[in-house]
Amino acid sequence: MTSRHTPEPVDADEPWMRALHADTGYLLYRLGLRSGQLFNAALQESGLRLRHYALLRYLATVEGAPQRELSTALGYDPSAIVGLVDDLEKLAFVERRPAPTDRRARVVVLTDKGRAYLRDSDEASHRVTDELTSPLTARERETLHALLLRVARPQ
Questions:
Q1: What pairs with residue 100 in β-bridges?
Q2: What is the pLDDT of residue 8?
Q3: Residues 6+ apart with CB under 8 A from 141
Q4: Are 87 and 48 in contact (CB under 8 A)?
Q5: Rounded to 5 degrees, what angle do the CA atoms 64, 65, 68 make?
Q6: pLDDT in tens, 59-109
Q7: pTM given for the model
Q8: What's the pLDDT at 6?
Q9: What residues contact residue 30 under an 8 Å CB cut-off, 6+ apart?
Q10: Which parts of 8-75 fold into alpha helices (H)?
Q11: Would you say the C-alpha torsion 99, 121, 54, 89 has a positive or negative sign?
Q12: Comparing C-alpha atoms, which of 128, 62, 71, 50 is closest to residue 94?
């Protein structure tokens, strides 16, 4: 039987740690990891993950989208989109339908059941955001959101 070794806590006063905490890109990365972990935990009951939620949220803003558009808009690999759409289709949250302009092409469309899921999951989304931004004032939250929108948009 092997015993598990628990690593000692990392000393935040170490020079290399201070350098990491001075790097905005690293802090954004860490925030993204933490956000993803909290969001996935909040969605765990439904069996979905943040990637599924993001795809559903995007579909709520359009009348339907080809998988290629989903890949580009969300920044996910095209092969990942296929699996995500398959998962959501099994739950009847999305449907693949003929494209209105080209019957040979297919678009992914959000169903009423998918819209209901999004409405039900809004509370979880707000809880995660509140937890992540709890150290900030309401005004700081607004500023952070505005700044993140500016840097998150593709150039």
A1: none
A2: 54
A3: 133
A4: yes
A5: 170
A6: 999 999 999 999 999 999 999 999 999 999 999 999 999 988 888 889 999
A7: 0.76
A8: 52
A9: none
A10: 15-21, 24-43, 50-59, 67-74
A11: negative
A12: 62
